[in-house]
Amino acid sequence: MDIAPEQLQDLTLTEILKESVSIPKSSPRTFSLITVTLIFPLSFAILAHSLFTHPILKQIESQSPSNPNLPQEWSRLLIFQFCYLIFLFAFSLLSTAAVVFTAASLYTSKPVSFNSTISAIPGVFKRLLITFLWVSLLMIVYDIAFILSLVVLIVAIDTNSLLLFLFSLIAVFTLFLVVHVYITALWHLASVVSVLEPIYGIAAMRKSKELLKGKTQMAAVLVFGYLSICGAIGGVFGSLVVHGGEDYGVFVRIVTGGFLVNVLVIVNLIGLLVQSVFYYVCKSYHHQGIDKSALFDHLGGYLGEYVPLKSSIQMEGMDI
Fold it and tell me: What is the pLDDT of residues 226-245, one digit of tens each?
């Protein structure tokens, strides 16, 4: 980014997207390899998941409850779902680590290569995993509240209680449109903090919460836009590729599926780059200057190039 640090806080949504899109141009080979080895498998798995589970679900639905093969089909589905979630979380964290580290290296004029990025991932991955586990605990609480709201909504419909129905409907939409988006924004920013600052876990979440103050609305728009685009891609993929066997030929479904996977790859790459740029925007907004030399040294620590941090970035602490 060629923008002065003090000017980052004034970037609009359009300018953030423009800056994010321009980052790969500084090291096209590195970002191409990251995209092919990490982001493409992640994007393919997200869309292909329904393609593989649909036949299993269809077979389960077609069998009677007394069928002796039914437990085996459920076991297949659960094993597949478990492996899918492990793959999804692993490649999500790996992609985040690679993109954020590479973008920060370019920001500090640190030499960038695919090998250096891969070498840094083990150190970054542990920090991201700890942060993700803390966010997962928060998401469990959110899921419980969301399920309870749905149960109340169902009860309100069954009892024809208008007041209870309106209350539960507002609760459901608030939890989904506000709380879910905020937690997602908190997680994405905390992931960047975990890579670029010597804190992770719950400490990174606290720092993320502080950074979001004053920029929550912008973060909400970015997250909601990203989730909406991904949802639209998934919906089209499901309609045309997964469930479109009777209306579309194999060739059309393959071409459409390939096109949508590539679109999702681009969306995921830009989304990760936006996370990085938005972090600098929030730091600038709160007048928390980033010492490029200290950040340079911090990134070098992932590669075994230990140099003591020389700025206030090290004063954030190591609490988790």
Answer: 999 999 999 999 888 888 76
